[in-house]
Amino acid sequence: MYRKAIVAQLAEAADRIKDGVPPRLKARVFTATADLAALAGWVSHDCGRYATAQRYWSYGIYASSEAGQPDRGVEIVTRMSHQMIYLGHPADVLALLDVAAKKAALPATRALVASQTGRVHAALGDEQSAERHLGAADELVAGGLGDVPRWVTYFDAAEHAGARAVSARDLRAVGRLRTPASVHFTDALALRRPGFDRVKVMDRIGLAAALFTENEPEQAAAAAHQAIDEAARVDSILVASRLNTLLDAARPYRTAAVDEVRSRAADLAVAHPTAVAA
How far is CA 104 from CA 17, 32, 73, 99, 126, in A? Predict the structure, then answer.
C-alpha cells in the first residue's frame, strides 16, 4: 500500500513535468521528483519488483541532474548497485560506481561510494581492492561527514559497519578473511540509531548466520532466536531472503537449539508468506 501511494505521487510529479515546469520552480520540482523516484525504487526493490526499481532509479538520476544535484544522483546509483549485488551481478556495478565516485563532491556521498565499492570488490572475492575502498570510507567516516543532506543521513558509522560485515562474510565464503564478520555485525547493531528496524533485523540475521559459519552454533542459535522475534514484525522480501541465508548457514548443525530455530523459521514462513524458508 505504501508503494502504491509513493508511485502514484511520482506519476503525478512526472505528469506535471511533462506539462512544463516554470524556471523558478524547476529545482524544487525536480528535487522532490528525485526523492520520490529514489523511494519508489527502494520499496519496489524490497517487494521484489527489480526491473521496476531500476526504472524508477534511472528516472531519479535524471531528475537529480535536472535539479542541479549530482550528489543526489550518486546516492541513487549506490541503491542500484545494492540491487545488482543482490541479484548476483557485482561485476556489472564497478563501472557505474567509478562514474559515481568522480561525481561525488560531498564527504557523505564520497564515503558512501567508497563503502559500497569495497562491498562490491568483496563480493567479487578481491580482498585487496575491497580493503582499499573500505579503508577510504573508514577515514572519511572517522573524519566527520560534515553537513549531511537529509537524503543521505542514513549513511553513518553503523551503515558502513554493515558494509564491512557483509564484505567479511563474502570474503570468508571464498577463503579470504581477516576479521570475522560477526564482529562487524555486532558493531553495526551497537551503532544503529532508533528507527532503523528493518536494517537492524537484517544485521541480526547476518550476525546469527556469521556465527554459524564461524563454528559458534550456541551463540548463533541465541542470535537467531532474537532475529526471528524481530523478523516477525517486518514484512520484507529482503528480510526473508536473509532468513534463508541463515538457515543455509545452520544446515550443518543438528542440535536441539538449532532445530528449534528451523521450526520457528518454518512457523514464520506460514505467518508471513514473504518469509519462504529454504
Answer: 26, 20, 9, 9, 24
CA dist., res. 22 & res. 234, Å (int) = 42
CB 36 within 8 A of CB 6: yes
pLDDT digits (tens, 9 = 90+) for 135-172: 999 999 999 998 999 999 999 999 999 999 999 999 98
Distances in Å between the Cα of 151 and the Cα atoms of 28, 89, 155 are 14, 26, 9
The DSSP secondary-structure symbol of 179 reads S
In terms of pTM, does the model score above 0.90? no
CA angle 265, 123, 259 (to 5 degrees): 20
Among residues 110, 113, 124, which one has the least CA distance to residue 173? 124
User: How many angstroms separate the most distant Cα atoms in the chain?
Assistant: 67
- Residue 139, SS3 per DSSP: helix
Phi and psi (nearest 5°) for 124?
-90, 0
Of 110 and 243, the one with more pLDDT: 110
Instruction: State in Å, rounded, how far the first CA of the chain is from the last one.
Output: 27
Contact of 182 with 211, CB cutoff 8 Å: yes
- pLDDT tens readout for residues 219-234: 999 999 999 998 888 8
Residue 275 has pLDDT above 80, yes or no: no
Q: Give the three cell numbers for residue 62.
A: 535524471
Q: Tell me the domains of the chain and their CATH numbers.
A: 1-68 (no CATH), 71-193 (1.25.40), 201-278 (no CATH)
- Amino acid code (one letter) for 249: A
Average pLDDT on 268-276 reads 61
Please report the pLDDT score of residue 272 as a whole number. 64
Checking if the pLDDT of 262 tops 50, the result is yes
Residues in the chain: 278
